[in-house]
Amino acid sequence: MRKKIVAGNWKMNKDSIDSENLILDILKIYVESQTEMIIAPPFTNLSNAVKILKSSSIKIAAQNIHYADSGAYTGEISAKMLQSIGVENVIIGHSERRTYFNETNELIAKKVKSALENNMRVIFCFGEKIDDRSSGNQNIVVKKQITDALFNISESYWSNIVLAYEPVWAIGTGETASPQQAQEIHAYVRELIAENYSNSLSENVSILYGGSIKPNNARDIFSNQDVDGGLIGGASLNAKDFIDIFNAC
Length: 249
Ligand code: PEP
Fold this sequence. Notes:
This protein is an alpha/beta fold. The chain has one domain: Alpha-Beta Barrel (TIM Barrel), CATH 3.20.20.70. 41% of the residues lie in helices and 15% in strands. Strands 1-2-3-4-5-6-7-8 form an 8-stranded parallel β-barrel, surrounded by 5 helices. Helix 1 (16-29) crosses helix 11, helix 5 (105-117) packs across helix 7 (138-150) and helix 7 crosses helix 8 (179-196). The longest helix has 18 residues, at 179-196. The radius of gyration is 17 Å and the shape is globular. The model has no long low-confidence stretch (mean pLDDT 96).
């Protein structure tokens, strides 16, 4: 049975004190369940998060990596470095990185490969822009993003891949995909994985939805057959909201 996951992407928010306080606030009201919780603080707070959450079941993710293990890439951080401080998950392909940092499917593919080779689990984000949705091209866009970045990965690595469907028009906008729109894309992606690998692999991949999930809409989205949890942006910055979303999964 595939895993249910709720992950919080803190983006470029929370200095070290606020980060520690948020983690402590989450811990106060967190009750372990079958659903896995992941938090993704900024790089500067990762070491401390690892320390605080050492004996907790809450997992930690980075929000980005460089594709090389080391080298002359000023300002960058590698998967190998993150592994060395105990960070075992990384978000790759987020639309904000695609848009503001010009990350192409080709670059994202290299990052995915590096993360997997360094034994990190990848939370791979994909999703169409509003123009793609208005013109009915969402499946074409999503297929290309996934094909280019993931379909040359050998089957054995797929146990370390989690997918997150994040329609760009729903991120930080307050607009969510309807439960049907989310379900349609998730089911379509599962079909693609089955065609390229196998039914059993496809059935075992967790596919999260992300885009303006809040405590009041989480349950509706999570109740879809092919939605295995969520990637949460804004609402993950508030302990109670994040826990309410987590408990809805
Ligand atoms: C995100 O950035 O991954 C995200 C889903 O953001 P929000 O929940 O704020 O729309």
